[in-house]
Design goal:
The chain is built from 14 helices and 8 strands. With about 300 residues, the chain is of the alpha/beta class. The protein has a domain at about 25-180 and about 210-240 and about 295-305: Rossmann fold. Strand 2 (about 100-105), helix 8 and strand 3 (about 125-130) form a beta-alpha-beta unit. Helix 6 (about 60-70) packs across helix 7. It is globular, with a radius of gyration of 19 Å.
Length: about 300
């Protein structure tokens, strides 16, 4: 039987002085600043589509929770939480004597997650702005760490993975989910292809971390092995995105894809229309009697500290 003990949530809300602060050079880094701004700009859309995000990611979220092996009373950190669905589910498992922090680099995202947690009556949940590459918590602060679709979007995922290892207690466990190969994720890849074909520019641009930056076979496992994790287990999970029409798909996917949303908003109407026409043609390959079904492949990696 797991014995649950009371936890002081304040201890998770306040960073410890022992944590190394971000240097001025890192704070002023142009790429990181632009990424922060980019995700802040789409936070409203993520809030409006939070239920959709939860529904589409339910299978992966459940697999992450199973791999984490959450126990009553544990301290859990969700990184790159977006609207916070994974962490909220974890909060229900660890119970009132446990504590979950929903964190994201964009304050707008954590505000959405906080409101959703309040509405769900989750009193063991707090929120905090956290940079994946510079996690402002002391060593061994958490029992478990969860990160869905965030590790592949930072400039230095190895640094981020090392930070996660640092803040885990001895024998603690972290679970990451990243997107698998682009050609096996047409739910998003076909939009990238349409924009590239129409504009002549690669998506994402060179040097910008994108959703498929850890798609290579073995990449996630090697990253975890080099970041202090042991007992590493990596697996694929195949799901699909089902929509009734191209209009439904178009109303969701571009709005959630940070750089794509901003790019489309900056293009002339006629170019947007041309990109949409290319998407219409590509979607035909995934037609079903009820609409469209587009494959999605995630790679899950779990490791112990």
């Amino acid at each position: 039987m797991v014995v649950c003990s009371s936890l002081d949530l304040q201890s998770l809300e306040e960073p410890m002085a022992a944590v190394e602060r971000v240097s001025t050079a890192a704070e002023d880094d142009g790429l990181r600043a632009s990424l922060r701004t980019m995700w802040a700009s789409v936070a409203t859309s993520w809030g409006e589509l939070a239920e959709h995000v939860d529904a589409q990611g339910a299978v992966v979220a459940q697999a992450m929770l199973d791999l984490a092996g959450l126990q009553c009373g544990e301290r859990v950190l969700e990184l790159a939480c977006g609207p916070g669905g994974v962490g909220m589910a974890a909060a229900a498992i660890v119970g009132p004597d446990g504590a979950v922090v929903l964190s994201d680099i964009a304050p707008g995202m954590t505000a959405i997650a906080a409101e959703r947690a309040r509405n769900a009556g989750l009193k063991n949940v707090t929120t905090r702005e956290v940079d994946l590459e510079r996690i402002d918590y002391p060593e061994a602060a958490f029992d478990k760490v969860l990160c869905r679709d965030g590790l592949m979007l930072v400039p230095d995922p190895a640094s981020a993975a090392r930070e996660v290892s640092r803040i885990l207690r001895l024998d603690g466990r972290a679970v990451f989910a990243v997107w698998g190969p682009r050609d096996r994720n047409p739910w998003l890849g076909l939009l990238f292809d349409a924009i590239t074909a129409q504009t002549g520019s690669p998506v994402p641009p060179p040097g910008i971390p994108g959703p498929f930056s850890l798609e290579a076979p073995g990449a996630l496992g090697e990253l975890l092995a080099g970041s202090g994790f042991s007992e590493i287990n990596v697996r694929e999970i195949s799901t699909s995105m089902k929509v009734s029409s191209v209009d439904e798909w178009w109303s969701v996917v571009p709005s959630l894809a940070g750089p794509i949303s901003r790019l489309l908003g900056s293009l002339p109407a006629e170019m947007n229309a041309a990109i949409r026409a290319r998407v219409d043609m590509a979607m035909a390959d995934f037609g079903t009697p009820d609409g469209y079904e587009l494959p999605r492949v995630s790679i899950l990696g779990v490791g112990r500290r």
